[in-house]
Amino acid sequence: MAVADQGDQYDFASDEAKEMVADRERSWNSFTSAVVWGVGITVVLLLALLLFVA
């Protein structure tokens, strides 16, 4: 039987797939970092406007 001769080890995660996942993780980490900085800067600017304009 050809199926039985293949063995029971399968490598579903190729090197290319691992690189793609690592790239997406880096992109996600960059995105979340940018969102946190953006929210922080927005809050600081709004508080500055509240203190100096009002």
What does the model show?
- The protein is mainly alpha-helical and 54 residues long.
- 80% of the residues lie in helices and 0% in strands.
- The protein is rod-shaped and about 75 Å long.
- The N and C termini lie far apart (82 Å).
- It contains two helices and no strands.
In the predicted model, the low-confidence regions spanning at least 5 consecutive residues are: none
- The amount of beta strand, in percent, is under 5%
Q: What is the number of beta strands?
A: 0
Average pLDDT: 86
Count of DSSP-assigned helices: 2
Order of helices and strands: HH
Shape descriptor: rod-shaped
Give the biggest beta sheet: none
Q: Structural class of the secondary elements?
A: mainly alpha
What is the radius of gyration computed over CA atoms, rounded to a whole number of angstroms? Answer: 25 Å
- Termini Cα gap: 82 Å
Q: Residue share in helices?
A: over 70%
Organism: Craurococcus roseus
Protein name: Aa3-type cytochrome c oxidase subunit IV
Keywords: Membrane, Transmembrane, Transmembrane helix
Transmembrane segments: 34-53
Secondary-structure map:
Elements: H1 2-5, H2 15-53
